[in-house]
């Protein structure tokens, strides 16, 4: 990834891909102002089932690849689709099933981040 424009474009592409598959409670955590942050953005959402979580994650990968030529660097959780992590370096995506999202509560863990709640359409 090269630069803030590319990172912002990737974040926006991820959000749109989540919306297309009806991901819920999309939140973008801006981590750039935090010391020792692991990425520029965390994008967090949830789906209602392992099938929806898998569909959201697959759509994110497809859109990032086709629109921006970005490939996921690391992917975890697709075996059971309770929590799928897609690591693009500067943008890390967390797609949960709702009970796992509530349990891990990343939003509170990164409470100092700039939080943007994306409106559902």
Give a quick summary of the entry.
This protein is α+β, with helices and mostly antiparallel strands. The chain is built from 4 helices and 6 strands.
Give structural notes.
There is one protein chain. This protein has 121 residues and is an alpha+beta fold. It has one domain (4-117): Beta Polymerase, domain 2 (2-Layer Sandwich). The chain contains four helices and six strands, in the order H-E-E-H-E-E-E-H-H-E. It has helices spanning 4-20, 50-68, 98-104, 106-109, and strands at residues 24-30, 41-47, 74-76, 83-87, 91-97, 114-117. It has a six-stranded mixed β-sheet with strand order 3-4-5-2-1-6. Helix 1 (4-20) packs across helix 2 (50-68). The model has no long low-confidence stretch (mean pLDDT 93).
Shape: globular
Question: How far apart are the termini?
Answer: 29 Å
Decide which structural class fits the backbone.
alpha+beta
Beta strand %: 25-35%
Low-confidence stretches: none
For the largest beta-sheet, the strand count, sense and barrel status come to: 6 strands, mixed
Spatial strand order of the main sheet: 3-4-5-2-1-6
Averaged pLDDT: 93
Provide the number of structural domains: 1
CATH superfamily: Beta Polymerase, domain 2
Helix content: 25-40%
Question: What is the fold named in CATH at topology level?
Answer: Beta Polymerase, domain 2
Radius of gyration: 13 Å
Helix and strand topology:
Layout: H1 4-20, E1 24-30, E2 41-47, H2 50-68, E3 74-76, E4 83-87, E5 91-97, H3 98-104, H4 106-109, E6 114-117
Parallel strand pairs: 2-5
Antiparallel strand pairs: 1-2, 1-6, 3-4, 4-5
Helix pairs in contact: 1-2
């Amino acid at each position: 990834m090269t630069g803030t424009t590319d990172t912002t474009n990737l974040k926006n592409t991820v959000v749109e891909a989540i919306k297309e598959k009806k991901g819920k409670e999309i939140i973008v955590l801006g981590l750039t102002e935090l010391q020792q942050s692991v990425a520029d953005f965390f994008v967090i959402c949830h789906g209602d089932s392992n099938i929806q979580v898998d569909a959201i994650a697959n759509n994110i990968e497809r859109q990032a690849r086709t629109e921006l030529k970005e490939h996921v660097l690391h992917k975890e959780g697709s075996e059971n689709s309770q929590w799928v992590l897609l690591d693009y370096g500067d943008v890390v995506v967390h797609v949960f099933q709702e009970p796992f999202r509530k349990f891990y509560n990343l939003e509170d863990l990164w409470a100092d981040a700039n939080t943007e709640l994306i409106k559902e359409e």
